Amino acid sequence: MDRGVIFYTVSDHLIYFTVMCIRSVQYAVKIVKCVQMPDHTHHSLIEYEDGHLSAFIQDVTSTFSREYNKAHGRKGPMFDTPFGRAPKKTDKSIRTNLTYLDNNPVERKLVELAEDYRWNYLAYAVSDHPFSPKILLRKASMPLRRALKMVKARHSKGRYLTGSLLRRLFDSLPNRIECEQLTDFIIGTYSVIDHRAATSYFKSYENELITAHANTGSEYDIKEHFIGRSDACYIKMTRVLLASGLVKDIHDIYSLTPEEKRKAFRYLNARIDAPGKQIAAFLHIPQKQV
């Protein structure tokens, strides 16, 4: 593993999220909290039967890797194994863990407030469309109506969303607003995150936000391997690389030759204020070659 970026696009996040939610039901594992960072994930989970947690994580990561690779012409696993785990037994340690997950994107300077990051799902505790206007079917385009119907049908059959399906659905939509609406709808439809369980440790959602805003998000049981001071540079790299013409789709990174990756590295290094190792992680260049 090169510890590279995993989630480049909204569709990448949604593949993982829908796989995770479907598998959590199958394995009877409760999801209390989840955060998807550009190059890793964290979960707060409750296991009701011995062995189910390991089987759940292994199934989620292997299924996601298979679907991700199929969508983007890649081979191999996407995550290190075995996964790390740190059992929490006291209310204080649980609160610390939950706050850490909420604040992971704040720590990495992706957002200023925990609730502004879509992929820690915190904002969905109080709204099913926190990042888009409420869908009004009478005003929705026909492609959006078809997309909503397809998502509901897949979910009702216990099927996650694949990369190829997500690409078709989003490409059919006429504008960015409806793309945001569809994203919120997918998350709201598939989510099995027990927000009430998380909030109960803080007494209220407002208290959870206050705690998140007042803490840096450190967690002594979780040993993170961070490159650089911020992950916001990955968004800039995506924009700059697509504008350069070196790739047509950001996932074309996987099909670049070693020389083409070196060219892309030099191009980004001249235009992005980020450590070379972080640019390498974005391009999936082994760190030892930097």
What features would you describe in this structure?
The protein has 290 residues and is mostly helical. Helices cover 50% and strands 6% of the residues. The chain has helices spanning 10-27, 52-72, 91-107, 142-156, 163-172, 176-190, 195-200, 205-214, 233-244, 258-269, 276-283; strands at residues 29-37, 40-47. The protein has a two-stranded antiparallel ribbon. Strand 1 and strand 2 (40-47) form a beta hairpin. Helix 1 runs parallel beside helix 6 and helix 10 (258-269) crosses helix 11. The protein is globular and about 55 Å long.
Concise synopsis of the structure shown:
By secondary structure, the protein is mainly α.
Q: What order do the SSEs take from the amino end to the carboxyl end, as H and E?
A: HEEHHHHHHHHHH
**Beta content:** 5-15%
The biggest beta sheet is recorded as: 2 strands, antiparallel
**Overall geometric form:** globular
Uncertain spans = none
Topology:
Blueprint: H1 10-27, E1 29-37, E2 40-47, H2 52-72, H3 91-107, H4 142-156, H5 163-172, H6 176-190, H7 195-200, H8 205-214, H9 233-244, H10 258-269, H11 276-283
Antiparallel strand pairs: 1-2
Question: Descriptors for this entry?
Answer:
globular; two-stranded antiparallel sheet; 50% helix; 290 residues
